[in-house]
Design a protein that fits this description.
The complex is a heterodimer of chains A (240) and B (181). By secondary structure, chain A is an alpha+beta fold. Helices cover 30% and strands 24% of the residues of chain A. The longest helix of chain A is centred in the N-terminal third of the chain and has 19 residues. Chain B has two domains: 88 residues, Rna Polymerase Sigma Factor, Chain: A (Orthogonal Bundle); 93 residues, Arc Repressor Mutant, subunit A (Orthogonal Bundle), CATH 1.10.10.10. About 13% of the residues of chain B have low confidence. Classes of the chains: A alpha+beta (240), B mainly alpha (181).
């Protein structure tokens, strides 16, 4: 039974717990976020309750993150950060493959093949086995990229039914817009698979949908917050 | 250096600052990811995705709470996405206790005494919640179920589920604010 709540002060406040716990449907979440922007009561209520989530999160059995995992993350970060003149005065080249990490290395390789074979609609597939053997086979697909993206290079990496889009030199989307990822099978409409804005010269974006039955990964420019259906033509198309 | 200052440096693409943030929060983040996805490999993938997203797109905003809360929210979202991608989500009424018991079996790892004690305090705070409130919190936060799914599973009106979620968070805040923080 839900009792009377003196803290509520707003009919929409009932949504706050579900919002904080991530239990709203996407459309409800968007609607509540729109409401939040104009409701100072709910903003205060949200702020005071957010800390409770840290309590819930902290109540789990404590585990140590594997050292090898932290090294892998730092290797990717160092590669993307690029050379640091104060510490590596001679380093003016792209980071070595060993610094990029295996997946990044093959993304770069696929990008190089893509460029070498003329780009445009040419598609080259590089299928390799990762040396660590933990994630299995990585397939990398070079994407066709619209000239509007100013010479950006994009590849899609796939491991089983999981995938990520890796973009090199992708320009920032126009103000108020984001890039939206889409996946599509041979039938049916494209399904939204994540939003992103490029950060730096290399962006690696996990595809937020399983790739089973998917044969195309696309990118469009959409209003901030994304859409449920594409509202513009794809600027990137990768055929898997 | 405080987390907030480190995050400003991370925003300027400083990998050394990022390394400190990673070291400070990786264990808590990994523990949460493991609790949700239930195995080492998936938890590692979640952590890698989450921290790289933080590096690439992370614009920390102090209004979102502490850096740790913010990082845990990113990890939580990624872990729940992973869980949901795995599919097979029950939609009809069933024994929710059974559902929680059937979460993937946890593997044993070493815990430091301090961490064990803190986690135990927080767990006991969760246990202090009325059963029906604790259940909706765990199903939502660790199970990745939406309020509508929890309502269907528990055969409760949606408004009741939402109300329990909010009441639970209020109680946690009120009961633990002075004791834990």
């Amino acid at each position: 039974m839900v009792g009377r709540d003196p803290e509520a002060g707003c009919p929409q406040a009932i949504e706050i717990g579900a919002y904080i716990l991530g239990a709203l449907e996407p459309a409800e979440q968007e609607a509540f976020e729109r409401h939040l922007r104009g409701c100072s009561r709910c903003q205060r209520n949200l702020e005071s309750l957010q800390r409770s989530v840290e309590i819930v999160a902290g109540a789990v059995e404590r585990r140590q993150a594997p050292a090898e995992l932290k090294r892998r993350i730092m290797a990717a970060v160092e590669a993307e950060a690029g050379p640091r003149p104060a510490r590596r005065p001679l380093s003016v080249r792209r980071p070595a493959f060993v610094q990029l990490g295996f997946a990044g290395a093959f993304a770069a390789l696929a990008a190089a093949l893509f460029i070498a074979f003329g780009g445009g609609t040419t598609r080259r597939t590089v299928t390799v086995r990762e040396s660590a053997g933990r994630r299995g086979v990585v397939a990398t697909y070079a994407a066709s990229v619209s000239p509007r993206l100013g010479g950006a290079t994009v590849v899609v990496e796939r491991v089983g039914d999981q995938g990520a889009l890796v973009a090199y030199n992708l320009p920032a989307p126009p103000a108020g817009k984001v890039y939206e990822l889409w996946v599509a099978g041979s039938r049916g409409e494209p399904q939204p698979a994540g939003l992103f804005r490029p950060a730096g010269s290399v962006s690696r974006v996990p595809i937020e949908r399983a790739l089973l039955g998917v044969n195309k990964v696309m990118v469009t420019v959409e209003p901030r917050g994304g859409t449920l259906r594409p509202t513009s033509a794809p600027l990137v198309i990768a055929t898997l | 250096m405080a987390d907030e200052e480190l995050m400003e440096l991370v925003g300027q693409r400083d990998p050394d600052a990022f390394a400190i943030v990673l070291e400070r929060h990786a264990d808590a983040a990994y523990s949460l990811a493991y609790r949700i996805v239930g195995n080492n490999e998936a938890a590692e993938d979640v952590l890698q995705e989450a921290f790289l997203a933080l590096w690439r797109f992370g614009n920390y905003d102090r209004s979102k709470g502490s850096v740790r809360t913010w990082i845990l929210s990113i990890v939580h979202n990624r872990a729940i996405d992973t869980l949901r991608r795995k599919g097979a989500r029950p939609t009809q009424a069933m024994d929710v206790d059974e559902l929680l018991r059937n979460r993937p079996a946890e593997e044993r790892t070493e815990e430091t005494v301090a961490h064990r004690e803190r986690a135990a305090r927080l767990r006991s705070a969760l246990d202090l919640l009325p059963e029906e409130q604790r259940r909706v919190v765990e199903l939502a936060y660790f199970g990745g179920f939406t309020h509508a799914e929890i309502a269907a599973l528990s055969e409760l009106p949606i408004g009741t589920v939402k109300g329990r979620m909010r009441l639970a968070l209020q109680k946690l805040r009120d009961e633990l604010e002075e004791e834990v923080w």
